Amino acid sequence: MATLVCENIVKNYKDKKVLEGVNLTIEQGKIYGLIGRNGVGKTTLLSILTAQNAATSGKVFCDGEPVWENRRALDHLCFSREINTMTPIGPNNLKIKEYFRMAKALYPNWDQQWAEELITHFGISIKKRINKLSKGMLSMVTIAIGLASKADITILDEPVAGLDVVAREDFYRMLVEEHAQTGRTFIISTHIIEEAAGVFEEVIFLDRGNVLLKENTEHLLNRACHVSGNQEDVDAATEGLACYHAESMGRSKGVTVLLEDGQALKDGYDITVQPLSLQNLFVALCGREV
Length: 290
Fold this sequence. Notes:
By secondary structure, this protein is α/β, with parallel strands linked by helices. Helices cover 31% and strands 31% of the residues.
C-alpha cells in the first residue's frame, strides 16, 4: 500500500489560477471524500495527483517517489474518470472490452475477470460501443475500471453521475466491501454528498483553489452544530467561536458553529442546538448551496 503526498501544488490556466499551493497527504487504507463546488479544481487536482496533468509548480510523491513520468510510482495509482463518447475525429467507437484491454496494460494488478463480472452485474455487454452508452452506463464502466484496477490508490471522479439510487447504493456497497477485504485507498469526488457521507472515513473540502479542511468525518460532524434563537442569545452563546453562514430574520438568528477541541457553547442562554449533516456543513463553510 502507498501514501500519496502533494507539496505546494499550483495550477494556472493562462491568467486563471485554479489551484493555489495545495498541500495534501493521502494516507494508506482510507476512503476519502473530495467535496467542492464546480470549478474549484477538484478534477484538476486529481489529474495532477496521478500525473495526467502537469502542475505549474509543486510536486507529487507516491511513497517518496515523484509520480511525474515515473512508472514505478504510477503503478500504484488509478484515476478513473468519465469516458468521452466523442473524440477529435468523431464518435468514440471503441468497445468496452477494448477499454479493458488498455486498462490491463496500464494496471499491473488488473483483474479482468472481476471487470467483466462488474459489467455483467450492471447489465451491460462488454461488446457495447462507448458512443452507444448512456451517462449512467458510462459511470458503470468507470466504476468497473476503478475497482478492477486493484490499484493501491484508486480515484473515482463523480462515479455515480447518472446512476439511479439503486445503482448508487450498489456501488457504495461494493466499494466498502473491496476496501474491507483489501485495505486499498479510495478517493471519491462527488456532488451527491449525503448518501456518500457514511462511506467516507475522511473528507476533504476544496474551496477557492485550496484545501479548506481535511478531517475524520465523524470527528468533524461531532464538533459542528447549528445554533438558533434570539439574536442576542445566539451572539452571546457563540462569542469567540468560529461561526459561519449566519442567517437573521427579525430578532431571530441562526449560525453554524465549528468548535475546536476543548471549546463549548456558553451556558445560560435560550438557544436551540442541532447537529449538522455533512452537506449542510459544507454549504455553511463554502457559502452557497451545491
